């Protein structure tokens, strides 16, 4: 009739993790109860798209040979908010009105003004993430002429990086 909070205790039983909840003692014959459970489970990043629980009702007073268990499958949806931050160093660049490229030079200053673009990808949670792919498109040509000469691409933090095919073609 009323609502009561259950007392539940986690423990290990036969090598599996078990949560035991005391539903009532004594319980009258023929009693019907409804139980709503909220479980907080961590470390589900690599569990796939569902987690399965075995639920079983047991009585201490009159053990039943059946003690049937019910399988409950709950979908898992990891949520994480990603944030991409970027800036350029220097943040403002003044280009000359005319620029003469020195053909065949391997000196950086003969190819233009150096501008470094830095991007940071942050996980704002609440879940951890893995297998994230960031594709960054840089307009390196305009009208068949070089707009930005892509010199170098590097990463920090144990990430893998696939280099652009037009990266440093003159080996500056």
Automatic annotation (TrEMBL):
GO terms for cellular component: external side of plasma membrane; integrin complex. This is ITA2B protein. GO terms for molecular function: integrin binding. InterPro entries: Integrin_alpha_Ig-like_2, Integrin_alpha_Ig-like_3, Integrin_dom_sf. Residues 3-76 form the Integrin alpha second immunoglobulin-like domain. It comes from Furnarius figulus. PANTHER family: INTEGRIN ALPHA (PTHR23220), INTEGRIN ALPHA-IIB (PTHR23220:SF73). It is found in: Membrane. It comes from the Eukaryota. Residues 83-171 form the Integrin alpha third immunoglobulin-like domain. GO terms for biological process: angiogenesis; cell adhesion mediated by integrin; cell-cell adhesion; cell-matrix adhesion; integrin-mediated signaling pathway. The gene is Itga2b_1.
């Amino acid at each position: 009739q009323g609502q009561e909070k259950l007392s539940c205790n986690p423990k290990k039983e036969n090598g599996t993790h078990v949560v035991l909840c005391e539903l009532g003692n004594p319980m009258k014959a023929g009693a019907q109860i409804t139980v709503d459970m909220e479980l907080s489970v961590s470390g589900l990043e690599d569990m796939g798209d569902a987690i399965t629980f075995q639920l079983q009702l047991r009585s201490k007073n009159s053990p039943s040979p059946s003690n049937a268990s019910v399988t409950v499958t709950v979908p898992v949806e990891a949520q994480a908010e990603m944030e991409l931050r970027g800036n350029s160093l220097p943040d403002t660049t003044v280009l000359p009105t005319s620029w003469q490229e020195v053909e065949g030079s391997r000196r950086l200053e003969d190819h233009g003004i150096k501008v470094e673009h830095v991007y940071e990808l942050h996980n704002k949670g609440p879940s951890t993430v893995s297998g994230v792919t960031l594709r960054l498109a840089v307009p390196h040509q305009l009208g068949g002429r070089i707009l930005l000469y892509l010199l170098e691409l590097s990463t920090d933090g144990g990430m893998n990086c696939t280099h652009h095919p037009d990266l440093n073609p003159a080996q500056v």
